[in-house]
# Entry
Amino acid sequence: MPTPLEACAREVLDVMPLVMRTVRAEMRRHRAPGLTVPHFRALAFLGNNAGASLSEVAEHVGLQLPSMSTLIDGLVTRGLVSRAPSATDRRRVTLNLTPSGQATLATSRRHSQDKLAARLASLSATEQATIMQAMQALRVAFTPEPESAQPG
Amino acid sequence: MPTPLEACAREVLDVMPLVMRTVRAEMRRHRAPGLTVPHFRALAFLGNNAGASLSEVAEHVGLQLPSMSTLIDGLVTRGLVSRAPSATDRRRVTLNLTPSGQATLATSRRHSQDKLAARLASLSATEQATIMQAMQALRVAFTPEPESAQPG
DNA sequence: TATTGTTATACTCTATAACTATA
DNA sequence: TATAGTTATAGAGTATAACAATA
# Structure
């Protein structure tokens, strides 16, 4: 007989991959500029944290530095992100969304959001509110603790 | 100003990758026999659906048939899954967990569950209950229907 | 001819290791 | 010496295409 906490963990473990698979499949089907979930999350982070460094994005998205370097490289090549040396510390890079990046983010987010919303629309308003609350609680529990650098 | 439904979709889109990244990282760290999330989900499905065919597992996990064939191949090689021709239709394959597979599933599930539970323990009992309810609602909304929305 | 599954092949994503540049 | 980032290289994981076997 599992405790409520155990049951909750198991349910999360069971259901989240199910949801993410749908999201991923939809992103792939849409395939605007081949935006994967990590691409998307990097763009979203830069949308909220203009001028962030590579390390900050990497930590937030959960990739190693070389992987994020490559990922950002692709976004720079595609003209979605600008990359420049920091004025105060020339080891660092300053990352920003270009106008095109902002537009792409908005479009892609809208698309994924709409597809997700279409699914969620089959649920009651109460259930939707419950999901909203659950996500907010999970965000708190799973936001990585800043070890060295904290974005403004 | 987004509607509640839109806000909910956006929150899901934002938070779920955050959670799944932690789960994945933990699985990788544990690295029992290199069980990935899809491996795990395939084992879990077979645990609940003994004798399932390859197509059934593939549909549930959300992989293409060749990918699932390879994945199952690895599980068979590792002695976690048995694979035999179906008695009634020899094109089909009958998949089952071996005792070792059952044990591995239990151990891995317990491990991931424990790690997840440790995170969730920082939340209140009310929040945990909310998450539980949210997952149950999401499960309903995202369980793939056997409809022919997925052509072959 | 249609369905189930496997094999062959290639591509994407991410990691580790080695390196450069700056502090 | 330590930190930020890049480049080189390798290895998982998954997809598409071609194939084999059965219905």
Q: What stands out?
A: Chain B is about 65% helix and 5% strand. The radius of gyration of chain B is 18 Å. The longest strand of chain B covers residues 81-85. Residues 53-55, 65-66, 68-70, 73, 89-93, 152 of chain B lie near DNA strand C (CB under 10 Å from a C1').
